[in-house]
Amino acid sequence: MRPPRLLFVGDADSVHLQRWVREMHARGAECHVLTRRPAPLDAATLHVVRPGDDAPGWLLALPQVRRVARAVDPDLVHGHYVTSNGLWGAACGVRPCVVTAWGSDLLVSPRESRLKHALTGWILRRADLLTGDSADLIDTMRGFGVSAPCHEVTWGADTERFVPPAQPRDRRVFTLASLRQWLPNYHVDVILQAVARLRRREPTAPLRLRLLGGGALEPVLRDQAAALGLLEPGAEVAEFVGRVDDPQLVAALQAADVSISVPASDATSVALLESLACGCAVVVSDLPANRAWVDDAGGLRVPAGDAVALADALHALWLDRDRTAAMGAHNRGIALARASRRVQMDRMWRLYLRLLGRDDG
User: Fold this and answer.
1) Given CA atoms 11, 15, 21, 22 in this order, what sign does their dihedral have?
2) What is the Cα–Cα distance from 234 to 204, expressed in whole angstroms?
3) Distance of alpha carbon 194 from alpha carbon 225, whole angstroms
4) How many H-runs (helices) and E-runs (strands) does the chain carry?
5) Is the pLDDT of residue 190 over 80?
6) CA atoms within 13 A of residue 180's CA, in its CB half-sphere
7) For the segment 162-171, what is each residue's pLDDT rounded down to a tens digit?
8) Residue of 58, 13, 9 lying closest to 35 (CA atoms)
9) Distance CA 276, CA 341 (A)
């Protein structure tokens, strides 16, 4: 019997899709990726159709998508992100069909118009298996009247690579990290406002904010940071790092006392899981997905978009560094118990095999 041949439909330039594909390749699958956004991916054969991001392209490319699917002849197709790649997966003619929701594709997009709502429902109801990485995503799926089983499967964190620092963090500097992209949903502007407020309260405090992630709002955010006095020569508080690889990300989290993630809308964030795994205290927006991971022992939750509340939370952690350190230790335990990528991907692999009738128990 040949190894399972899996056709993933997704953004090949996404590190999250790349990790998922590599995990399945490591478990013996023959992996193919159908994409509009090509990038090198050594674990799969890439099939690029109509590169770009234009909305009409998703529909106009469907005949070519079906031809590619027939040529690949996969055992199953798996669309990542409901309202784009999920459409191709649902319409390419391959069964069984798996669809994974990423967050805003279910929590935001269907609310934008009746057409998007109807299209989302059609895609979900075509699937034979649905996954999402938070309970609110699963509830939202079921609200569309789906008949397929729905499973909560997280992206997980590599808990063998993302580990706490070998030595206690340097308490001489209060170091904050934000791993989220510089896009409107992630409220990096609110983080800058909150840190500026914290600096005014504690003007002599050695304070550092490292902004990872990168994104289109960089010029606006740099101007804001400068206006807030966070980029003063010789006394820079904010550092715009941008995108980094995994070793650099681990190093940044190991140096951080607190990881901040305050989006307006989110499912389970990989950035959050990696922060937990590295033993950081966290401050997050008070969203259902975050409540599932962050309790009072591990961090603080604040209303999304509220710079004052965020500043208050950061100040509380600055004032009690022992509490902050204890939160980090607690979070490492949470990550080991619930957020291991290996465990999550083992579970997904079994779901694939069950769907293909190859599950031996």
Assistant:
1) positive
2) 14
3) 11
4) 15, 13
5) yes
6) 25
7) 999 999 998 8
8) 9
9) 13
CB 8 within 8 A of CB 31: yes
**C-alpha to C-alpha distance for 170 and 176, rounded to whole angstroms:** 12
Residue type, 172: R
pLDDT of 104 strictly over 90: no
SS3 302: strand
pLDDT digits (tens, 9 = 90+) for 194-240: 999 999 999 999 999 999 999 999 999 999 999 999 998 888 899 99
**pLDDT tens digits, 298-329:** 999 999 999 999 999 999 999 999 999 999 99
The pLDDT assigned to 38 comes to 96
Alpha carbon distance 92, 198 (integer Å): 52
Q: Which residue has the tokens 């099939």?
A: 47
Structure tokens at 215: 């994104």
Residue 80 amino acid letter: H
